[in-house]
Design brief:
It comes from Jeotgalibacillus soli. One of its GO terms (biological process) is DNA integration. This is Integrase catalytic domain-containing protein. The chain is an all-alpha fold. The protein has one domain. 67% of the residues lie in helices and 0% in strands. The chain contains 3 helices and no strands. It starts with a helix and ends with a helix.
């Protein structure tokens, strides 16, 4: 969790200015989707976390 929040702050919070709480909520939801479905990790065999979990469950 510490890693997630560290990345969240450096990749979203510190890079953008938000005009409202609603805009922040939308951007946060987009970032969480990106973090789980689009972000490629070499440690996960070049896959993002969600597809890797699906792949690992199918292989087991």
């Amino acid at each position: 969790m510490e890693n997630f929040f560290g990345l969240l702050k450096s990749e979203l919070l510190y890079l953008k200015e938000f005009e409202s709480i609603e805009q922040f909520k939308v951007e946060l939801a987009n970032y969480i989707y990106y973090y789980n479905h689009k972000r490629i990790k070499p440690k996960l065999k070049g896959m993002s976390p969600a597809p890797y979990r699906t792949h690992a469950q199918a292989a087991a």
